[in-house]
Design brief:
Elements: H1 4-18, H2 24-29, E1 35-42, E2 46-47, H3 51-59, E3 66-69, E4 76-77, E5 82-89, H4 90-120, E6 127-129, H5 139-148, E7 162-164, H6 166-172, H7 179-187, E8 196-200, H8 206-210, E9 216-220, H9 224-234, E10 239-243, H10 251-255, E11 261-263, H11 266-269, E12 276-284
Parallel strand pairs: 6-11, 7-8, 8-9, 9-10, 10-11
Antiparallel strand pairs: 1-5, 1-12, 2-4, 3-5
Helix pairs in contact: 1-3, 3-4, 4-5
């Protein structure tokens, strides 16, 4: 998802937003001939993500800038570690600084919180997955960060898989069809390759959904006891996903109920930017 084309398009747009008519501060105060060296330094421990995006902010500003990434996406680092070194024209480095930091701080923050969830369920075989609760226009970046942290991606968009929630089923069954019949009827309009997931919020809905031959069933906002019961009821007939109100304090217990996937909206919608700083030194003017 995070292709070079996507990176260039989005980073160029961010640079244009930040300096639509140039960086008048750097142009007024910094000689055009000045060069600089800047170190990307961790102010706190975390998991790195967004190295190529960080680099693009500088090289798209001025192709004379060189970025030496000292860590790879997914690497864990400690406070005080130097994560990258940037060298080149001082004006360009100062112009791109905030955009480069915005991306790498945001992405590393997501990777770090994802790693915390993944660590919490280690040994259970459960996958921690993101959701579509992403920043508009930045989904590919944020989902890349989830993978950097050891998580997995849910469907990327509404075009990728069928996911029937309560509102969909309410509309489908208005015609008088049962839930099973409604899903089977919908399947006739789908390609055979389409994956179907259905959300349920009660144990008594499970059998009707499974009877339609779906691939994944989401147990939404179930108690731990009901999750255990639901997993036994599904009995391997579909992938079981747990969702709703998942936190770091509860994720291990949810994983131990036997579900296959736990989706966590907080990975992207609530992750804070990690504290990374760019220490700039003007080499010569």
């Amino acid at each position: 998802m995070l292709s070079p084309a996507v990176i260039e398009t989005t980073v160029r747009a961010a640079l244009l937003e930040d300096a639509p008519w140039g960086d008048i501060t750097s142009e007024a105060l910094i000689p055009a001939s000045a060069t600089a060296t800047a170190e990307l330094v961790a102010r706190e421990a975390g998991v790195f993500s967004g190295g190529t995006v960080f680099s693009a902010a500088f090289t798209l500003t001025d192709d004379r800038v060189e970025v030496d990434l000292r860590v790879t996406d997914g690497a864990r680092f400690a406070r005080g570690d130097v994560l990258a070194v940037v060298t080149g024209p001082a004006r360009a480095i100062l112009t791109a600084e905030r955009i480069g930091l915005n991306f790498v701080q945001r992405m590393s923050g997501i990777a770090t919180v994802t790693a915390a969830y993944a660590d919490a369920v280690a040994g259970t075989g459960v996958r921690i997955a993101d959701t579509r609760k992403t920043t508009p226009g930045l989904r590919a970046f944020e989902r890349h960060a989830v993978r950097s942290g050891g998580g997995a991606n849910h469907r990327h968009s509404l075009s990728d898989a069928v996911m029937a929630k309560d509102n969909h089923l309410a509309v489908l069954t208005r015609s008088g069809l049962s839930v099973t019949e409604a899903i089977l009827d919908a399947k006739t309009r789908l390609p055979h390759t389409a994956h179907i997931e259905v959300e349920v919020d009660r144990l008594d809905q499970i059998e009707a959904v499974l009877a339609a031959g779906i691939g994944t069933i989401m147990l939404d906002n179930f108690t731990l006891e009901d999750l255990r019961t639901g997993v036994l009821q599904v009995a391997g007939r579909a992938t079981v996903e747990a969702s709703g109100g998942v936190t770091l304090d509860t994720v291990r217990a949810i994983a131990e109920t036997g579900v296959d996937v736990i989706s966590v909206g907080a990975l992207t919608h609530s992750a804070r930017a990690l504290d990374l700083g760019l220490d700039v030194r003007i080499d010569e003017a």
